[in-house]
Amino acid sequence: MQGVQPLFPQFVEAGSSSLLAFYLLLFLMFAALAYAARRIDKSEVTTAPRRFGKVSSGVVVFVFIFSVIVAAGLPGVYYFPTVPLLFGAIISLCIWFSFSRYGAALGQAFSLQTLVAFQGFRIPLEFILRDWGETGTVPLVMSWAGQNYDVISGIAALVFAPLIPKKKSLAWIPTVIGALLLVNVLRIVLMSSPFPFSWQLERPLQLILHLPYALIVPLCVVPALIGHLVVIRVMLRGAK
């Protein structure tokens, strides 16, 4: 990518096996999002008027626009303010979606148990990040060898999900754990990125500059955040 290398250290590509695992995870995540989008579009809350509904098309457009921005090299050439604005817009979009009628439809389309168990995808993701930390693709602090303990979120989700049908309030435990650890991940991302106030790392975090690595944001971080917010919404309104 022209314009990136003079500003950042040489990016270390992931090994073929972990990259293949990442591609597989991205495919499964996109398939899960597409399925969820169709369920939302067909719900009584949204009732999409066309064959390809608003949320379904929105998922495709969102991932496409994000990919174009990365492929065009904007985050590399104009890291500031492109990256902060991009993340700010994405987080705002997640909050809006989760508490909109679409978030309500998502909460109705799937059981509380399913919404909680979904966070289990974070287990294979953390194994991938652990491997990337070893190869230098990401700073080691981004893995559980550093300060990222997000694998606990996936474990908690899978442990408590089977118990939720009998006691709905148990959904709070993996949700609070997962939300706090997700905030911790965002903290690590912020502090390991090449900002003036961040940690002075020899190799700062550069995933946002390269495809397919940057797709971890729209296909992993966004679903995790929306998943937690929707569960919180369902719980506050009284899970059924």
What would you say this structure looks like, in words?
The chain has one domain. It starts with 15 loop residues before the first helix and ends with a helix. The longest helix has 26 residues, at 16-41. By secondary structure, the protein is mainly alpha-helical. Mean pLDDT is 91; it is low at 1-6. The protein has helices at 16-41, 54-71, 74-77, 79-98, 101-109, 112-117, 122-135, 151-160, 172-192, 216-236.
List keywords for this structure.
240 residues; mainly alpha; 62% helix; globular; disordered N terminus
- Which spans have pLDDT < 50 for at least 5 consecutive residues? 1-6
Arithmetic mean of pLDDT: 91
Could you give the order of the helices and strands?
HHHHHHHHHH
Inertia-based shape: globular
Distance between the termini: 50 Å
Class from secondary-structure proportions = mainly alpha
**SS summary, helix count:** 10
The percentage helix is 55-70%
Tally of discrete structural domains = 1
Q: What's the gyration radius in Å?
A: 18 Å
Q: Based on DSSP secondary structure assignment, what is the total number of beta strands?
A: 0
> How big a fraction of the residues is strand?
under 5%
Most strands sheet: none
